[in-house]
Amino acid sequence: MEGGFGRVISTGRSGFNGVICYRGNLSRACGAGVLFKDALTSIAHHTGPLRRFGASSLASMVVLAIGLSAMTAYTMPELQKTAGGRLSACLWCCLAYFAIECVVRARTAVRAGNAKQHILSLSGFVDLLGLVAVPIALLCGVAPPTAWLLASFWVLKLAQNSPAIALIARVFVVEAKALAGVSALFLIVLFLSSAAMYVLEHDQQPGPFGTLPAALWWGVATLTTTGYGDAIPLTHLGRILSAVVMICGIATFGLWTGILATGFAAETRRRNFIQTWDLVSTVPFFQSLDPAAITDITHMLRRLEVPERTAIIRRGKVGDCMYFIAAGEVQVDIKPTPVRLGAGAFFGEIALLGDSIRTANVTTTMPSTLLILDLADFRTLTANHPDLKRAIDSEGQRRMSANQQLRDRQRLGGAAPSRTGET
Amino acid sequence: MEGGFGRVISTGRSGFNGVICYRGNLSRACGAGVLFKDALTSIAHHTGPLRRFGASSLASMVVLAIGLSAMTAYTMPELQKTAGGRLSACLWCCLAYFAIECVVRARTAVRAGNAKQHILSLSGFVDLLGLVAVPIALLCGVAPPTAWLLASFWVLKLAQNSPAIALIARVFVVEAKALAGVSALFLIVLFLSSAAMYVLEHDQQPGPFGTLPAALWWGVATLTTTGYGDAIPLTHLGRILSAVVMICGIATFGLWTGILATGFAAETRRRNFIQTWDLVSTVPFFQSLDPAAITDITHMLRRLEVPERTAIIRRGKVGDCMYFIAAGEVQVDIKPTPVRLGAGAFFGEIALLGDSIRTANVTTTMPSTLLILDLADFRTLTANHPDLKRAIDSEGQRRMSANQQLRDRQRLGGAAPSRTGET
Amino acid sequence: MEGGFGRVISTGRSGFNGVICYRGNLSRACGAGVLFKDALTSIAHHTGPLRRFGASSLASMVVLAIGLSAMTAYTMPELQKTAGGRLSACLWCCLAYFAIECVVRARTAVRAGNAKQHILSLSGFVDLLGLVAVPIALLCGVAPPTAWLLASFWVLKLAQNSPAIALIARVFVVEAKALAGVSALFLIVLFLSSAAMYVLEHDQQPGPFGTLPAALWWGVATLTTTGYGDAIPLTHLGRILSAVVMICGIATFGLWTGILATGFAAETRRRNFIQTWDLVSTVPFFQSLDPAAITDITHMLRRLEVPERTAIIRRGKVGDCMYFIAAGEVQVDIKPTPVRLGAGAFFGEIALLGDSIRTANVTTTMPSTLLILDLADFRTLTANHPDLKRAIDSEGQRRMSANQQLRDRQRLGGAAPSRTGET
Amino acid sequence: MEGGFGRVISTGRSGFNGVICYRGNLSRACGAGVLFKDALTSIAHHTGPLRRFGASSLASMVVLAIGLSAMTAYTMPELQKTAGGRLSACLWCCLAYFAIECVVRARTAVRAGNAKQHILSLSGFVDLLGLVAVPIALLCGVAPPTAWLLASFWVLKLAQNSPAIALIARVFVVEAKALAGVSALFLIVLFLSSAAMYVLEHDQQPGPFGTLPAALWWGVATLTTTGYGDAIPLTHLGRILSAVVMICGIATFGLWTGILATGFAAETRRRNFIQTWDLVSTVPFFQSLDPAAITDITHMLRRLEVPERTAIIRRGKVGDCMYFIAAGEVQVDIKPTPVRLGAGAFFGEIALLGDSIRTANVTTTMPSTLLILDLADFRTLTANHPDLKRAIDSEGQRRMSANQQLRDRQRLGGAAPSRTGET
Prior knowledge:
Four copies of one chain form a homotetramer. Chain A is an alpha+beta fold.
């Protein structure tokens, strides 16, 4: 029955020996403090995937930051005089780095046989633009400080590695009609109010309201509630109109936000579902379920990609989720001999069944993909699928009783449980 | 069984011959780039309906843009001197175009027997207003630059063809009570804070806070967080009050946004449901389902109206949805002879069943209405309706095996599959 | 069977005779125009309940608007000189009106035996405050223009009749903890950034950043993105800090909005459910359903309170909802003899079953409470409850066939159906 | 059967005697006023838990407010001269208070055996930072007014006791990827628009657009719609670009808000579920339900922690919820002898079953944890679980009939029911 829901790669005599719940009586006096530390370690925990990004990607980001800073500094006359040479050298170095990066990517694409597609893709275009813009400008005889301004195209590299930006782009595409409607409304209000304001104010203020383009400038700054303050109506009617325009601006904000919020939520849910679905089918634990139940569960699970040697669970922390291993391997640090769990296994369920305190450190031994099931969803899932609850319960009981036996044996042998491994 | 879920208009020997999955081993090295290109082609894809708008509507938009620009330029004294005649001629041309458009529409309405209704409708009123406002002003002896300002009513034509604006109007109507409540709150805060500010500041700053109307002007600019900066409290109490007003402004924003976001989401869902419902009933594939299941499916499908000769699917792209043809016809570009699919058929399911790479180009041969089923909803749908899954699976298998046979035959005959048709 | 789902108060020979679908072939050429007119009539339709407010409430609002305008004008020195007497008289008249209103309300409360509760309620307090504030100030020897400023408390009367404001107040109460959390975050960012800005800038700009209160003033204006522009950092570090503060401001906005939007949506849903629940149980049509189904339906229906002699449905309009009469009576304007429907009956279902064009005018004969079922919800409801669908269908068929018979008879008799009654 | 759903600690002869519905015929003439009073008492009701905070926490907040005010005042030169000594003394007192608080907390932690964890927690760090920052600065020879600026770290104490801030932190963590995507978009728009603006404007305005950092400053102020007004484009192209940037700013707002709103709603729902789950299982009334039903109910209930001697229900008020006692005890103020209800009992159901008027005052006798079931959820719950409805109904009937008997007896005995206890 155990094999039915988790492949346990046992490196010791029995799984989870030595993991003892002696932190169960942890005083919760500093509750809020614990919450905060949890939040912080949880940041480290969730940003783990960033590290998987790889060293090359991190280096890209650092070079990008240096390059953009140098380019920015290069436009300041005083720095140009005192440190112009060094800044210029720095910029050339960044350009060289991007050139190498571009060549590496192009070669990978050529080897994979999709060179044409790579060049036509946005990624390839951004690489090329960042590479050739400045040299071409310099060759055309543009002065260096102006030519290097074209290095601001490097900032587009931020979009190369971001699935979130692709997601946002898709939201804009799907909601295009609704956004176009709000924009039409925006334009109608803008044009009519600016024309009216031009009529009302252009005699009194020939500067800021003397022409319709100037009035439109006021209209945009007011309708977006930016309010530069360079064009301000002075007549009573103008001010009343202006108040109406400001309130229309808030309404535009509201509609825009409503559309984007709704679209973003729907798109995120859809994207997560697709990414999680394939992983769920790889976990043997769920294979006994009918497809409709798997659909439910897929909506509950969150994907987490963790690099090698990353701590997933720390002993003594409050635990509010359990984990299924979709790919990779983790090591449970139990005292006599650590236990390894491979793809298909689950861990972290003891805290959910018991007093919500983690009983052992768990660390990845290779880059792994985990599926997280939050406590709230765990309750809902086990309420609707009693057989899953039984399976998790029996494994949890087995592990806890094994721990208990070990603890008893240690206590008889006089070995006090050490607290190393905690932070 | 095939006839049960799709009317295949076969122009060749067998459906989908020659569509080969040889792009299945496509390297996904440039994933992010692909995502972006997808987003871009997807924009072209989704904005397809705009083209259906028709040439006349597009011309209207161009004339509108030219007219509004000319009108804006006409208010600038320097341009009025140097290019006044040309701008004036341009404006008269635009007016002539709108007059013709107005006459055409009116004649259509008269022929349809609803002339009275047309004139009373907003569309007819906007047409008429745009047509007569400027000539009447000129006849009344208003100077041309001022009279042409009335051409800004042309911007209302943006609202004539926009279902999104009608949707937004409906949201405001349905949420009128709640919005009135927030507006009342806004007025209360505005009036009380302005009166208090007038008391606090009018001795020190007789200009910006010398009268209650002036204080109200400060109140509006602050409560909408526009902050022109022409009226700024100087006393300590005034600044504290001002801070409270700004925070109330954020809260008003939040409530306004919350109401509009909720209302917009509900209204969009309702509108989509109604538009999709009638189409779903025309697809024979869904006719075996009970009404409750059809209600579920209607919530999942999205409508897409595509003009003639538009590419729906491009071979080699990542596919995350399948299509049902509610009306119209598409052509699947398979090598020896293309296949045509008519109303009631479906396509694009091979990518969802297999490795998510599109295996053939699909183009419309006439203006068509498609129903899109996203991957996430496809999974949910097939999980809850195993019979639908079986029907899609068996058709997909049939098509793939037909492709496989053709590929084998071509390989024996030595004809390498060409890659034209990709981009 | 008919009696089972609607009490028809028949004033003619048979229900719905003479209502003929001859508008079924209505050209939809001016679709967008129709959409707009619909939106406008729908505004009139939905704001109908405002009229129920009663003449006295409308008069209150008018007197309030006049009073506040007069009070505002009274603070302007030039108007005070030229029209001071008339403004003062106007204000005294408003005060007299509010005094009468206050007395009437108090007497009603005394008669109902809850005088104490009335005085302690916000409504009573607002009445009293508006009444005594100005006279007491005048008695204390305050100059009239200043004393009349206290009339700005009248604006609180806007909150007296508004259930939406009570709803908003409840949202703030329920979400108090979360809002307090965001406010704490706001204060932390505000204080730390202002202290840092004071350190960075107070040497360079002793005016706007010379003291911590001044820096806090900058902080509030920046964190709320108001940006008055009176205090602007000049140092590089100051500007980077300022950029961070602005972005924190957007995040605060986002959190605030998110909390209020979520809370408002939940509270509205709950309030609507409670208000609709009692009405649903009065409609015999729904009494055959089990309680769980009634719960579903209650979420779908919207309440609409309509005063006497209000048009609910206009013939020839596009119809997207049907109505159940919870209380009151409507008259269906059918040619030979109009038909009256009382509480428990339904109407408007013919458009949903057929070609979505309304076939007759329907007007209330007394103040009525209707329950609206939108087309989308109608589809869902009938899909899940086939018996309801059968009942509605059979009544719809009966009414349509009666109309058909009458139409045939009229055609034989040569009497062309007149089109009066349309607009 | 009674014991099955509520442990009644009866202190009198029979439960709920003397509670009479004589307020059932309460005139609802001042409906809006009642709504408001309800909202206000409901604030007092919901903020009850704040009082549980304890006197020490309240004292902390007061000392914090005094300390921050004194520190702010200390930076103003005029106050420094006139009241420097008093302010300094006040600040030292606050520091002393925080030192004592810090020592108390540390001792509690040491006694609980988690001293190390306390120091490493955010709570401990904030305590320490607030304690040592100023003395160290003074010892290092920093002038007192500057050194005391470091007391602004005290504001972090606001985050120590706030679960809402921990919740917000978690939302940011979970939504980190999406927020990073929006931030990348923000940076791309910011950099490209600022570079373009620098090119367009730096010749004409060497001040505000003379360098790229200056242009970036304009970009941030515009993209966040703060609009200080110190850098304003003058060229036509610059203004058009600026308008685009402002609209991008609104879109960024919208995305940010959408992400945070969605994340916050999901996180709140999850947190509430977890907190409520354990309490639900302690109420015997729900123990007969299957786990899936308990999951449903857990989503419906809200937790409310009430300190000792707090009024939960006031007689004569409109009631829209019922209460289950998860822990603690309440006293129902019935005339001859009050009744006490302990953990597991419920109250407040009579208003939901009858005319929605509360029939008795209910007050806590010890700190209690209640579960609130709103009227809308009560309807849904009882519709789906008829057995629960029966149990509540029979208890309600029993209580009401007991009240009725008592009322009859009192009436015969001539004892008019007094109205004391109402407010």
